[in-house]
């Protein structure tokens, strides 16, 4: 049932009060009346209203004095002033004090109803917007980040502190640790939560396409540019831009990004007009930016501009106390999606889950739990419902003889090669298991010269 809007009418003319009250009630409004300001204030001590109709000339307290008190004590209520020709200037002054509008006497009932209708509609839109904002914050805010470990509590505390500001945030952590979720939490817990939130994966585009995606282009800027296109910077104006996998951004693009970060301006490809934007930046990477700077593959000045606030996400193996909590969360989530009863995890299965090192982190755990819900029987998850590598502790057992080359790049190259074999050459599946974007996998295959069998 839709709640009726409530109207308070304040006028010393008894006949006008009755006539207005009857008409407003017939139009579906709840109405209360008062013959002077003090009486109106007494009514407002016991009840709240959406709209007040005030006469300018009244005994004891005129309409302007009452308006000032209403705006000080009942800020959520809109006020329409009713005035005769002789007090138009006073009515105009009341607008500066916060009145929504003024209406001349004798009253045009259609005008009264039209103004009240506009206010009611605007309030309904505002309530809906507030509801949607609260829903987004509930679904994507920092309270949605699950875990009781000190590392996760520190992450949540940092998000809570930095979100209300416009500071740039850099999120670092292994693939699958939840960097995008943290970026979401920063945006949806900020004052920009109702403004545009634009995401782009820097590893998913070749350099020339990444530039046009970020900066946009003018008509005729290059072959095929048959119309003007806004870039991500421009689309995110007033809101937040999330630059994922920023460690994969080519050096020439890094220089152009630095200008936007420092000056808030850029030009579209093929254009000369300087476009200014008010955009908050959040960046994320799974790479060691210090090492990339040493190798001259990431600009020092860009790093120092990005690292205003750094949020470091720990790998899942370092927050093992959170694993049972996450397991319960994912089981409930996927069981609900599949309209199944939430299964229980047997002690043997939980033992395997806790002993597995989770190289794909939270993303891998989510995938395993989704699979387990699909194959679970009799309302429980047993070891047989877990993937073979989890059952066998695939990523846990180290070889008796270690390889001679234990550099990070060599280890990563061998791991990618092993996962490609496990996925039988299916790059989409391999990228999913590794917890990285498909384009990132292609780049690493090329970089390490991995032979595909």
Would you kindly provide a written description of the structure presented here, covering whatever features stand out?
Mean pLDDT is 86; it is low at 396-401. Helix 10 (251-263) packs across helix 12 (300-306). The protein has 453 residues and is α/β, with parallel strands linked by helices. It contains 19 helices and 16 strands. It is elongated, with a radius of gyration of 31 Å. Strand 4, helix 4 and strand 5 form a beta-alpha-beta unit. The strands form five sheets. It has a five-stranded parallel β-sheet with strand order 2-1-3-4-5, sandwiched between helices. It has a five-stranded parallel β-sheet with strand order 7-10-13-6-14. Strands 8-9 form a two-stranded antiparallel ribbon.
What is the secondary structure topology, with strand pairs?
Elements: E1 6-10, H1 14-26, E2 30-34, H2 37-46, E3 51-55, H3 63-73, E4 78-83, H4 88-96, E5 101-104, H5 109-140, H6 150-162, E6 169-172, H7 179-188, E7 197-201, H8 207-215, E8 216-217, E9 229-230, H9 232-235, E10 240-244, H10 251-263, E11 265-266, E12 275-276, E13 280-285, H11 289-294, H12 300-306, E14 309-312, H13 323-337, E15 344-345, H14 347-355, H15 361-375, E16 380-381, H16 388-392, H17 408-422, H18 427-434, H19 438-447
Parallel strand pairs: 1-2, 1-3, 3-4, 4-5, 6-13, 6-14, 7-10, 10-13, 15-16
Antiparallel strand pairs: 8-9, 11-12
Helix pairs in contact: 5-7, 10-12, 13-15, 17-18, 18-19
